[in-house]
Amino acid sequence: MSDQEIEGTVGKEQGRLAKWGSSVKKSVDDAQAVRKERLAQNLATYGTPTMSKVFGGSTVEIYDGGYVRVSPLMTGKTPFEKLRSIEYSFQVQDKSAGGRAVAGAMVMGVNYLGSKEKRFAFLTIATGAKVHTLKTKAGMTRTEDRIGMALEAAGNAVLDTVKSATPMQVTLAGSTPSETQPDLADQIKKLAELHASGILTDEEFTNKKAVLLERM
Predict the structure, then answer these.
(1) Segment 163-177, tens digit of pLDDT
(2) Burial zone of 27 (CB within 10 Å; 0-12 exposed, 13-18 middle, 19+ buried)
């Protein structure tokens, strides 16, 4: 093969590589543009993420538009679900034979610290599509408690914001009375029980109680 033929072959190969490189770059640019467009649409529809934490083996993402995503493996295809309610709770199980299970709201003082007891933490997330019940074994470091309560607080804060932004409807005579006050009373009672059980510090209890009282 002559030098000219070699140069011609090399030139063609370089041309093909350049064309292939341009094609790859265009594909990457197009994919990035699609991702940016999808992100913009998600922000407009679902809001921005306010919290993302792992609880019970699943990632929980809460968005300020009133939506949540829950999945053991979070991907771009994980659906957004309309958040209806979110609640953290725990249960104490006696390890001894015939041991009883006690709901967290009933545990006081150092009762749950016994060496023969084990604790389980739960996060119940109700959405417009389903109810997610996440469960994890709670250690004595209270890490799971703090994560669960943080997610519960973030979710309820979002729900309160969405609710306050929704135009109020005029209550007609004879309609069902609002259950806001009883709900607040129950929440304050639950905070007191968590405080008594040692999960909430004095400062955390005071701050959370003040937030609830402001809603009344």
Answers:
(1) 887 665 544 445 454
(2) exposed
Residue 172 makes CB contacts below 8 A (sequence gap 6+) with: none
Whole-number Å distance between alpha carbons of 168 and 1: 85
Q: What is the mean pLDDT of residues 80-96?
A: 86
φ, ψ (nearest 5 deg) of residue 45: -90, -45
Alpha helices, H only, 47-74: none
In whole angstroms, how far apart are CA 57 and each of 72, 180, 216? Answer: 6, 33, 36
DSSP β-bridge partners for residue 49:
63
CA distance 111 to 101: 12
- What pLDDT does 159 receive? 94
**pLDDT for the residue numbered 140:** 73
pTM score above 0.85: no
- Answer whether 158's CB lies under 8 Å from 84's CB: no
Please give the Cα distance from 155 to 152 (Å, whole number): 5
CA distances to 1, 35, 46, 81 from 42, rounded to whole Å, are 59, 10, 5, 12
